[in-house]
Design brief:
heterodimer, A: 130 residues, alpha/beta, D-Maltodextrin-Binding Protein, domain 2, 6-stranded mixed sheet, 4 helices, 25% strand, disordered N terminus, B: 455 residues, Porin, two-stranded antiparallel ribbon, 21 strands, globular
Chain lengths: 130, 455
Amino acid sequence: MLIACLSAMALGGDYVIIVNKDCPIGDISKADLKRVYVGKVTDIGGTKVTIANLSLDNPAAESFLTEVTGMGSNDYKSFWMAQQIRGGSTAPLVKKTPDVMVDFVKEGATNIGYVPKDTPVEGVKVIELK
Amino acid sequence: MTPLFYHAKGGVMNAKMMLLVGVLATGVIAQSDQKFKLYGFADMTLTKYFPKDQSSVRTVPLMDERLMFSFDHLNLYQEYRPNDRVRFLTEMSYQDKPPTYVDKNGSIFMGVETPAKLADTNKVQKGIVFYEWGSFSVERAQMSLSLNRYFNFTVGKFITPAGIWNVDHGSPVIMTVNQPSQYTFREIYPKSQLGIMENGTYFIGDADLSYTAYLSSGRGNPVINRAGELAVGGQLRLGLPVLDECNIGLSEYSGTQTAVLRTGDYSMYPDFKVIDHRMFRYREYVSGIDFRIRKSIFMLQSEFNYQFVHNSMRKDWADDSMNTSIIGTYVLGSVDAYKANNFTVTPYGFWEYVRYFDTYNNPSLFGYPVDETDVAAATANQYFLGYMKVMAGINMRMYQNFGIKAEFNFTQLYQAKQPDYSKFPPDPVDPNDIGEDKDGLLNIPGVTAQFYIAF
């Protein structure tokens, strides 16, 4: 079901969470977002999603990962390396710059990402983190 | 068209065709670059043990007093995801083990004899007799289909989802230099199996419950004589939203191991008869519980596993004489003593205890190919009753991809109490009693260092 576009900024650090304009997801709980970013699930509320991280040396990435996953970027990298060696899923895509992230989110109806707060977000939807 | 080369069988391929094939191949490769991934790890160790001069342990490969520098693993993972739902994964491993090493029934065959010789150039020289070292294995080769969070199917060869350390088998992941011996010296669970597996995850509030169930051919047994010989198993894992991590797991496995020697009887020619000689047959049940908790810089991990083996060939004996029991447990604790960007120093401590009971009831478990019905012969083989191991070390990780570990370890082997032959007749002894090691000949201290790289 389509949810009205929310223009409110996501709670938390110096980042905002963005989804495709046609994405049926209106808001996301921190628990659900953590589950997709640590590979436990690939859907949110039954909607299969594709996620991406900003380059992990970006301050917004550090802020997002610390707040959502409870891991700093270095621990996050170690976590995914361990997951790979265990034979689990591989790490999410990485987008080098905020502009590339915005383009990624525009490309797929269920793509999700995050960008620094001051990034122009025309053409995508900003959603709230519950 | 100018032929560029002649095919070995006399065919000819012209330049234009080669170019076309090259373009197509490049196109395919370019597309599959995004969906195909190659990664892995490698590690090497420097080890020295300090057994006493009179200790028979000095004759055990890898536990003698000589300094050993070995390239232990090179594991390569190949992953291909044509779409979001399908995944192909293989893991191939070069291991520093002899090609004649056989993980059979969870035991290790170390005494396969070959003529004495020196290893060829570029082969690892670890001993003049018995075997040459270094072998490859396919750790896993599987295809997975993901339908939703509840139904994910995997077919092929997969790592047994049991405990923590059977899946965490790579040097960049495990804290210590080596996995617990209950997963390496004698595999209490089969390391990997060939079959079909289903797994999924339920969320209960902020907690998650993961489950896995599988059906397989069991512990390296490709021949299934009847449906009852299939192996089954599974795991439940509960992740609780307390501390920084709180994971509890329950694991189960049941399988059958049989060995049948088949011969042909031509004595009634032209009639032909197949004769099967069953060498051994047992059913095993393995249960385990594990947990891992983390809070801030502290981590604590433990497993307890129990294996019960029922010798199916001893039908006429009382129940007690058909069974063997094995328990294995360990505790691992660590603290991130120093953590900076891209560099972590983690001291750790580890204790393991493994104990065998009534091993003479299933001598094939311990590498002794004797007639399973011959109790007298089996009793003679009932000597090694387990061990206790303590390790303490430091794990230093750099940039997530490199690491160095330095470790002190101490192993105490348990041997069966022997009758006092100074008396006649000697007093009977319980074969499960551990004998006294007055001279410390079964104590083996050692040090080891490891370097690993993940890529």
